[in-house]
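Hi, here's the filled form for the chain we discussed.

Project: internal
Contact: R.S.
Residues: 974
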Amino acid sequence: MPLLEPKPEALRPGAARSASHDRVLDGRAAGTPEPLRGELTALLGPEKVLWKVSDLVKYASDASPYRFVPQVVVVPEDIDDISAILSYAHGKGREVVFRAAGTSLNGQAQGEDILVDVRHHWTGIEVLDDGAQARIRPGTTVMRANATLARYGRLLGPDPASAIACTIGGVVANNASGMTAGTTRNSYRTVSSLTFVLPSGTVVDTADPTADELLAHAEPRLCEGLLTLKAEIEADAELTARIRAKYEIKNTNGYRLDAFLDGSTPVQILRGLMVGSEGTFGFISEVVFDTLPLDRKISSALLFFPSLTAAAAAVPRFNEAGAIAVELMDGNTLRASVSVQGVPADWAELPKETAALLVEFRAPDEPGQEAYEHAAAAVVKALDLVAPVASVTNEFTRETKVISGYWKARKAFVTAVGGSRPSGTTLITEDFAVPPSQLADACESLLRLQAEHGFDAAVAGHAAHGNLHFLLAFDAAKPSDVDRYAAFMDDFCRLTVERFDGSLKAEHATGRNIAPFLELEWGPKATELMWRAKRVIDPDGVLAPRIVLDRDPKAHLRGLKTIPEVELIADPCIECGFCEPTCPSEDLTTTPRQRIVLRREMMRQPNGSPVETELLDAYGYDAVDTCAGDSTCKLACPVGIDTGAMMKDFRHQRHSPREERIAALTAKNFKAVEASARLAVAAADRIGDRLLETVTGLARKAVRPDLVPEWLPEIPGAAARKLPRTSRVGASAVYYPACVNRIFGGPDGHRGPSLPQAVVAVSARAGKPVWIPEDVAGTCCATIWHSKGYDEGNVVMANRIVEAAWGWTAGGRLPLVVDASSCTLGIAHEVVPYLTDENRELHRELSIVDSLVWAADELLPELTILRKTGSAVLHPTCSMQHLGDVEQLRAVAEACAEEVVVPDDAGCCAFAGDRGMLHKELTASATAKEAAEVNSREYDAYLSANRMCEIGMDRATGREYHSVLMELERATRP
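And the returned structure, exactly as it came back:
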């Protein structure tokens, strides 16, 4: 065992706990039982079978209020694996559930037997017919698909609020729609063809002209059964009319019976039935969408009304004016949204009865936009709007940033309102639709019903389509609270069906919580037809039992998850999964949501239980060590949960007092450490990579892999011992070369000035010279200590750099320009909690400017571009995202290159200072997709603005990345 290996006990929850009724029982501590584990391992290979109890727990939760622990999780790579899994399940009498993003709100991505992860190996998009169509794999997120389609001026019809995380497979399987899709742009209407695997293992490509012939040969009984059902439905005029009427408004409750009316052959019927089938009819392996025009001329307004009734009454007017989206938010929703970054703080003071409509028009050109704005102005003129707080304007705008803020507040409904729920409560998100003409009545009736049952009243939704959403928070550990929820659901379902003839699920699909009420909405005849369709397609009931169809009247009360309190920073988490696509360790170990899910299971366990012990043993590497600490999860989370910060705190908890003292000593003597590091890097050129890899490898085994970096061949040579000479007299800014740029030089193949030389030169050319203080050596942004959770060392260096910066900048009179984005972030924001009160005051006076902002905003306007490179690909770092500097990176690059590309799969490289040297597998996993995209073609320049991230991308791509400021120097060099 390594000398300083941390003990899992350090992370054992300290609070007194009693065993929760829904905890994972001791008998499951060993994970997947035999022979299931051994048989699936033999069938698929060990790397495709996740069997540890920590694996099972982290897949047991999704965005729904339910929690079911699978027996095993398998990760197939291709259709052959899928067919093998289904064949195995048939032969062994087992059940299979498919899961992609886990953003479903009704438990349809959860299984109690074999759970199949179809996210990891199922991504990709192929653009067809110049963007008119797109072939997309099921693990691809909607946002990722739209990023590619945007280059062609196209986008997908479905636009769910969870587009950042939800995947195409889930969108189609649930017929999710969203803000603008309505009943005409959803998956049912815009899917051109599907490729899917039936429960029997038969693969069907609905675009194949011979598909019906092949299916008839492979599945004659299935074809006969589908045609029999079709004939029966068509022979019943009353039923046919009822089916058509049900889909005049949004409806995802039950199976799409209109598929029997719209399809004339078994394959055509199956194409329709698969949409919205929630994984109960087969696995969708590929989707071809008909795309829609991306109208880029956008005008939006957030309009405030004195009441819900007044807001609802205005909806038809905006529909008639041509609005593509009309979104409703009630007062409680608006007030809760202040937890979302960028939402005006004074919304917290809005009167409870206030309501708002987010109205948006989109046009392909300027004349179209002006016409829409004229029509909108006419509608607004006739409305009685209110402005209860100062930030309310009630005006249409074209400003992208303002519009983005409106949508961020609207899309955060579930997480913002849910995040403000009482600690320890379970959140349920309901979704229903009524005829738009009855919207106001439905809103008022719903709010009264919520109040009658003791729930906080809040409603939002796609008002243009009569589609409303609301939230219920209750404690699933309390039987009385569960009874209250059950009573509400009974009343709500009767209200929706009997008073409004509405849809109990408009776009979230039936799942588990509406399955018992399916017959209430559809009636016995239509419901029985759905059961028969299931038996025709899946006669053995292998796929997703108890999802969509369940005869148990209390099925929606089974498996409700408790939400035990965890660390304060993570406690608001509702497990929505928005954070997962941004996480560097997503495809390696755990995601931010899973880190919190595992922590919650520890809190469900009695102290010292076998399950808790197993979870703790795995948590050190899976959660703590392989977290990049980049906190991009915070950016993706609508309520700003920073799981990276929690992992850093856990690293601190694992440190011994001796480790903390050593780290603090390193900070105190950093000038010597810095000089030694530069000498060591210089010596490495003479020693050779192979010997250094061996030596550091042995040291890692002896000491601890999370403390001793591994030497990588991509590490560049040493920086020059002396920085460029500059003068304080006449300087426009103080230039702070980050310690990483004082230790490491540029790419080995680079011929030209170093980064510090480039910054000095290009600033002088722009007439804004910079000064490098003579005593920068021995100072640092403190990120080295912060990222590892060394609080004592962090305190030392945080205060040192602020005191030094105060002196250098003459008390903040000059800006401090920092040449590494992560160091800018560190000095500007991350050091603050570790400062003394006096130094916090000094910090407030400092103006800390990232070198990208300095170059884009201050230098570019004064520079003459003399030469450009042909093409450049950019790596925007996670720190740039936190700082909001990505556009400045692009602006500088566009000044230097004829063509600038930001990869669609660009994300955090996870090199994270030296974490890529501590866990190189983390960087390899995090950069795999971006590297593949980068290496799909040649570029003349590979640019970023953070040396360690550049090294990480060098390793990932085999190319040589360098700072965009070095490229700017070359472009402007006389």
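Let me know if anything looks off before we file it.
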